[in-house]
Amino acid sequence: MPDRAGEGFAQVNSTAASAARWRAYALVAPALVVIALFFVLPLLLSAVLAFRGAQGGFTFEHFAKAWDYYQKDLLFTVGIVLVSTVLIGWSRSPSPVTSRWARTRAPSRCCAGSTAGPCSYRSS
Length: 124
What we know:
By secondary structure, the chain is mainly alpha-helical.
């Protein structure tokens, strides 16, 4: 015959754990409602309305209009990103020219005026 003394204790622990779990959810629920109401819902509505035309059908007309307005800015941004990427890649490549250029502009780790240690290349 199984011992029934431990079963009641297990049931009390299970009930207390369940109550603690629901209490935690109750404390988090207001924050989740605010996030859903002010962030998730507007995001979903924007995504749906971006593809809906004046008559309610599916359309890309809003994106075509945005391209007309912002084409110059978007292409300028892409150009800046490409030039920046090339310059960063060039400045980090291990060629003699870029290595000297990077060394002469590296922040100093030694005391001012010192020619010893990691900054000895600055004396040339």
